[in-house]
Amino acid sequence: VIVRVGKDPYQEQFLAHEGTLIKYSEFFKRALSGSWVESDLRIITLPEDDPEIFELFLNYLYTKQLPIQEQKDYTTLTEEEYGSQFNRECERVGQIYVMGEKLQSTIVKNAAIFAILGLTKLRDFKGELFVPNPNMVRDIYEGTPPGNPARRFLVDIW
Fold it and tell me: Which end of the chain is more exposed for a tag (fewer CB within 10 A), N or C?
């Protein structure tokens, strides 16, 4: 199956095994079955999504690992380094969760929640415990429906 993600000129194309996609994503299961055009062409287009985040999503389906450094010692970083590394990592986890929600992949959503939980055990450059990144919170709230478990989880850990 070919999955095209993003808009030109930044669109990227990914090849994936149909069995993997339909096993872990209700979205792909439905898109690749029945009388949908995608079912015949074996091409799925996700123009509104970020290719980098889809690549992480797809990587998780195959490896069952998110590239999140839950064990990294952020206390050794300067404030600037912390801002660019840790905050970006938090944002990616939130975006992966939202993609899991959109593509109806419980396994990816659960992995993202466990990654956030792992991040809560880390300390920042000041030695303080993790607090959810505002951009991650925003992405999850804007990308999920009211009552979504990830929203409640973020409130609980705040």
Answer: C
Q: 2-157: which CATH architecture?
A: 2-Layer Sandwich (3.30)
Q: How far apart are CA 41 and CA 1, in angstroms?
A: 9
Q: Taking the domains of the chain in order of start, what are their residue ranges?
A: 2-157
Half-sphere exposure for 106 (CA within 13 Å, toward CB): 2
- pTM as predicted: 0.87
How does the average pLDDT of the chain come out, rounded?
88
Residue 48's Cα: distance from chain center in Å? 14
Pairing of strands 2-5, 43-46: parallel
Tokens of 151: 């929203």
| pLDDT tens digit sequence for 23-65 | 999 999 999 997 888 888 899 999 999 999 999 999 999 999 9
